[in-house]
Design brief:
With 299 residues, the protein is mainly beta. It has strands at 28-35, 54-56, 73-75, 78-83, 104-106, 109-111, 188-190, 197-199, 257-263, 268-269, 275-281, 284-291, 293-298. Strands 1, 2, 3, 9, 11 and 12 form a six-stranded antiparallel beta sheet that branches. A five-stranded antiparallel beta sheet has the order 6-5-4-13-10, with no helix packed on it. The protein has a two-stranded antiparallel ribbon with strand order 7-8.
Length: 299
Amino acid sequence: MAITSMRRSSIGDFVKRNSMKSPPAFPVSVEYVVVAGGAGGGNDLGGGGGAGGYRSSVTGESSGGGASAETPLSLSAGSYTVTVGAGGAWATIQASKGGSGTSSVFHTVTTVGGGGGGSPTSGFRFGNSGGSGGGGAREGSSPGGAGTTDQGRAGGQGSQSPARGGGGGGASVAGANGSVSGNGGDGVASSITGSSVTRAGGGGAAVDSGGGLGGAGGGGNGQIGVTARTSGVANTGGGGGAGGQNIGPIGAGGSGVVIFAVDVLAAVSFGASHVFTSTTVGSNTVYTVTAGDDDITIG
């Protein structure tokens, strides 16, 4: 009998799928946002703490100080240092400034800790320089500290009349002078994690009324009248708010953060001291490191 038809074999339609994860082609391009620790605020109508320095390589976004995004890192398989900077301490007495924040590091990218806010005793009046500068104290209309180029802005100048310190500098906006408001400067927004988050806001100065608010991006409020000052928000690099009359123990700078985005096919392992989370955004895994000083391994 002649064969007049033949069903198509299901064997011929079989497609083998390999679900094994393959390493990416190295070197890989890695975008980052690296924020240093913010500084503590001054005391006795002192200046707000400066925000931690801010550097970013995210396409279409900005670094601190009005700079454009940097070039992403090109990394081969290997080990790289990741350090998250701590926030600075608040000024406990008039004869001290707010403590400056410490640097955050991602391989060759280092950010400078925020500059501490000034207090009105002679020798402690000026805001410290840093990633963003601390605000000056009210006494002598003292100047704020300078920010670091391409990382942050300067702190505001203090005012004797009205008696207000200057606001701490933020990553994108300088701290306001005490004669204006003493507000902290605003930080920079990034969507590297998939949603927009603003970081590195400056701390507010201490005021009797009409100002002293922390900048957008985790800056702490200064003491406003009888309302106690607040600290910079953790893992934003926000500066701490300044105090009125030894009100504490708050007004410290917020800790920094290191965020980086790498091809989802890359294997990343962290050091024992690191604290981190991860999420998938498009074709990348985005890692947010909130504490630690150690090496990571990319392979």
